[in-house]
Amino acid sequence: DAGHGGKNSTPGKRSPDGEYEWNFNNKVLLSFTKEIEKYENVKILRVDDASGKTDVPLKKRAADANHWGADIYLSFHHNANTGVWGTWTGTEIFVHPNSSARTHYIAHDIQRALVTAYKLNGRGVKDENFQVLRETNMPAILIEGGFMDSLIDIKKLRDDAVLSKVGIAVAQVIIKLEKLKKKKEPALNKADVIHPNTNSIDQNNNKEYIASFKILRFGDTGVEVKQLQTALNITNFKLREKVDGIFGPDTLQALKRFQSIHTPKEVDGIFGPKTRRALNSVINS
């Protein structure tokens, strides 16, 4: 999960300038997910609100992870000290006092990865009785990636390239730990794709178009998102706002409306293989 929630959903949990912790957390989580989904046999469950609109209760987060049967629980956070600017610095990891040796092993590997990716001091792996660590049934690790109220650390937190590197670094720890194999590039099927070099879809001759097989989710940007937005408009699951290449709340809701009709068993707001096939099928029908 990305710890806490976004605007107006969590008291406090922000920098002295008013930047919400969840926004930093979410960027790391999205980068982590994008990297690890390049590998086989990986499933991700977000137990926070992916839109940031609500702060999902900690008890529910832990219960959802347990019910789903997760192998590892990662909670992405960023730290705070007094809430006013200071010069404290560093990353740290929290695990439950009764956690397994395996949990500690993973935590120490992640801590080393954080120090390298953030280029900040490491404050170590510490024991804490946090609810998501206490009530989960799998190795659970809470990551604190630098201080939001640090004049040193905030420069890293405001740098999206750094946050992206952090997500990738944490993913690589899990990839190596689980010895995951990278997915093979799928064969392209001209009848089932959209052209990557166009922002529109030719409704009269769509078999000539080739689409990216990239998985798209909330927070993504780029030409692939524009293609998805255009396709949703064409199939009458229209966006309220313009096609802008930003996978925001409007695109998320339009995609979920489409999924509720065409992939009712997969209404997750993620544009993956099943949803892509369904969308192309509707376009070509």
Report what the structure shows.
With 285 residues, the protein is α/β, with parallel strands linked by helices. It has two domains: 21-178, Aminopeptidase; 190-284, PGBD-like superfamily/PGBD (Muramoyl-pentapeptide Carboxypeptidase, domain 1). The protein has helices at residues 21-36, 58-68, 101-118, 131-134, 154-157, 160-178, 223-234, 249-262, 273-284, and strands spanning 73-79, 91-95, 122-127, 140-147. Helix 1 (21-36) packs across helix 6 and helix 3 (101-118) packs antiparallel against helix 6 (160-178). The protein is globular. The two termini are 38 Å apart. Mean pLDDT is 88; it is low at 187-210. Residues 62-175 form the MurNAc-LAA domain.
Characterize the largest beta sheet: strand count, sense, and whether it forms a barrel: 4 strands, mixed
Total of DSSP H or I helical runs spanning 4+ residues: 9
**How many domain regions?**
2
In round numbers, the mean pLDDT is 88
CATH fold naming of the largest domain: Aminopeptidase
Helix content: 25-40%
In short:
This protein has two domains: 21-178, Aminopeptidase; 190-284, Muramoyl-pentapeptide Carboxypeptidase, domain 1, CATH 1.10.101.10. It is 39% helix and 9% strand. The chain has helices at 21-36, 58-68, 101-118, 131-134, 154-157, 160-178, 223-234, 249-262, 273-284, and strands at residues 73-79, 91-95, 122-127, 140-147.
